Amino acid sequence: MRCTKTGSSGTHTNSTNSLIIRVLFSNSSTSGRPRAVGVEYLHGQALYRADRRNNGVQTGQFNNATATREFIAAGGAFNTPLVLNLSGISPQEELERFDIPVVIDLPAVDENLQDNCEGGVTVQASIDFESTFEGCTFIAPGYPCLRQWREDHSGPYGQGAASVSMLRRSSVSENEYANLFYFGAGGAVFRGHFPGFSTAQFPPSSFFWSIVKMQSQNRAGIVKLRSADPQDVPEINFNFFAEGRDHDLQALAEGVEFALSIFNSTGASYGPFRQIKPRHDISIRQGILDEAFSHHASSSYPIGRANGSTACVDSRSRAQGVDNLRVVDAPVSHEYQEHSQSCRRISSVRRQLM
Question: Residue ranges of the Glucose-methanol-choline oxidoreductase C-terminal domain (predicted)?
Fold first, then answer.
């Protein structure tokens, strides 16, 4: 779908079902630096291979669009670096691997991917937990819970995904503040956004705690090209515990031990609980290493000093070495901050700039 709207601030066109191939550059700027002038993109459904509807045969219709002022990248922690890699902004050796013409040799691209890693506890109670989703048909005909939410934003779909949460400070917190965030629920299990997570089903006697390790010590994550094909998903590796391993593991292990102590002290009728994760036959630390996940990626296109070797954008969100290109979402955070706080700060600053 393409939708063009005209208002007091000008005309803009939204193009859904579109996949960017690359940003186009011209060398005609007065600064002598490459200038972003537009994009090439494909139009069609499910073109990106991360889309489970993609069957490998979609090719899309080729299009291009020009930019009269600036190109603004906001593709997220994975796809912003992907697009700029494909556009020739990346470490030179990485571009040469895939015969992509070099626009700017920018060593900081592909590095610094961060997130607050998570571990967790899953148990099964002696009896089932009551479910607020009783009567919901989900994707089956009827949709009573969806209809209720649409009418007055109430009902099961009006509540958060996890019904309980808490904060706790571990012995290795960097300051006086909590460095563990717990969220959980009865009758459900959350182990991250693995393929098929949205349709996974667990016994109604299940209870989970997901334990988020804040104050992450690890900045070793990467987002790299697999090929020069824009439909390909990049190589994404958080390299959890590659840096600050003992610190992060200690905090998460304390978090797991505390969660288990809650279950062990709960009597009938829900108790006793059967421990599912971490498994009994391995240590808590090994269980964390085996099962760690995350879901708030950030910092893969970091901000920093203009022309600095460890930064991709300057303090005004301008991409290093080129003109008319800005990056305006969470990847520009140099160090991981709590996700909502980081996004609010970035959006506020960028709104003022533009």
Answer: 220-331
